[in-house]
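tokens incoming
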């Protein structure tokens, strides 16, 4: 027996104590020992009482203490121990006097293995940070004293003689624990979850199963209905795509020039690989005809598509107006506007056809950048044009300004063809007025 209690001893416990294999009692309580509890204490197989309380031990409880097969009393209270309660403590079948782990900083649930300590008389887990339910304590029938106050335990109380006789002070400080000693707080048939399993719950079980079955059936039905709706929507979209090939709705064709190709030839070119541009009003394709001619085909967005491509309602109503654009383009004959060849449409799709401008999508960008760098000055004109009359040079510069508006990086800021035609007519009108003056 070694009794060093109630002194002012400091520092860590000597590891050499673990060599005293015949030691039965070690009491160093009420000192100032620090550091971790030596894991080598598990070698003290003859030890029946280990008292380390009221010191400043830190770290976790050594798992090796579960090897102390003769231990009857283990008191580690009033230290700074952290971590969880080792499940290995449940292996000490001889632990019958007391297990005191109070006033530490232990966390986590009570391990289920603690239920194996059926001979234990005193258990004190108070003033820690333990949590979870208490079902692992339900089988400790030999307990005469239990204190689990000031932790984070939740749920119901095991329904046995000890818990029904416990003082409220042994349960206080567990906010989620049903601890007001009344019948509704006791768990007669405790399971591993700490939930009540009484007869009333068993009567409600068929109702719960029925409700769950109905919920599952409803969920499956909603999934099936959703899948059917998606399939129908895809079929509708596919039908709309087919209509562009002429399978669903007939096409109407209005040429504004003499053309040597058919609508079918144009439609076969409306594929993603032929896209050369997209804007607020539609997407533009390059179409190579069988006779070698190349045209640009502009497919106008429907109203809903135009809105999703950055148009507000006011602009979309103008730019998506097929009849207005066709009427304007068909009446224009101007050297600065690309030639409008014709239009075709069916119930879902509207197409405009123009002369194709080679390199318009690449080289044209370099030209635009160069003109903008020159800020639209007169130096952008060919030197041979500078000898022209001042009125003609002014008309050229104004036409160039209109062209820059048409290639604005923001589709919303580009004028439509009706506006372009009006601006070019205004330029012509100003030159005529200048000539009369």
């Amino acid at each position: 027996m070694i009794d060093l209690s109630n002194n002012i001893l400091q520092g860590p416990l000597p590891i050499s104590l673990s060599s005293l294999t015949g030691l039965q009692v070690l009491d160093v309580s009420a000192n100032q020992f620090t550091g971790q509890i030596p894991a080598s204490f598990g070698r003290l197989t003859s030890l029946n009482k280990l008292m380390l309380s009221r010191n400043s031990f830190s770290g976790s409880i050594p798992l090796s203490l579960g090897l102390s097969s003769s231990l009857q009393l283990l008191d580690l209270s009033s230290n700074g121990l952290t971590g969880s309660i080792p499940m290995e403590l449940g292996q000490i079948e001889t632990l019958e006097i007391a297990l005191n782990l109070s006033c530490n900083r232990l966390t986590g649930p009570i391990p289920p293995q603690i239920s194996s300590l059926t001979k234990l008389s005193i258990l004190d887990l108070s003033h820690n940070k333990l949590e979870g339910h208490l079902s692992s304590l339900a089988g400790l029938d030999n307990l005469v004293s239990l204190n689990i106050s000031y932790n984070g335990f939740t749920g119901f109380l095991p329904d046995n003689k000890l818990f029904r006789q416990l003082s409220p002070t042994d349960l206080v400080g567990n906010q989620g624990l049903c601890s007001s000693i009344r019948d509704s707080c006791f768990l007669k048939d405790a399971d591993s979850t700490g939930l009540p399993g009484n007869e009333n719950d068993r009567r409600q079980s068929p109702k719960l199963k029925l409700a769950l079955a109905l919920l599952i059936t409803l969920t499956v039905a909603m999934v099936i209905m959703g899948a059917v709706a998606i399939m129908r929507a895809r079929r509708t979209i596919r039908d709309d795509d087919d209509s562009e090939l002429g399978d669903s709705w007939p096409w109407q064709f209005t040429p504004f020039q003499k053309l040597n190709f058919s609508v079918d030839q144009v439609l076969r070119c409306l594929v993603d690989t032929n896209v050369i541009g997209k804007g607020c009003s539609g997407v533009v394709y390059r179409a190579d005809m069988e006779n070698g001619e190349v045209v640009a085909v502009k497919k106008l967005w429907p109203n809903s598509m135009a809105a999703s491509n950055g148009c507000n309602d006011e602009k979309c109503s103008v730019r998506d107006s097929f009849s207005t654009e066709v009427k304007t383009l068909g009446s224009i004959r101007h050297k600065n506007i690309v030639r409008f060849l014709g239009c075709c449409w069916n119930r879902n799709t509207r197409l405009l056809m123009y002369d194709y401008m080679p390199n318009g999508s690449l080289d044209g960008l370099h030209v635009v950048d160069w003109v903008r760098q020159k800020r639209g000055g007169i130096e952008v004109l060919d030197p041979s044009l500078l000898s022209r009359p001042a009125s003609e040079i002014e008309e050229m510069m104004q036409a160039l300004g209109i062209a820059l508006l048409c290639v604005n990086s923001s589709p919303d800021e580009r004028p439509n063809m009706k506006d372009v035609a009006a601006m070019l007519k205004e330029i012509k009108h100003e030159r005529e007025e200048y000539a009369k003056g």
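note: Residues 189-199, 304-320 have pLDDT under 50 and may be disordered.
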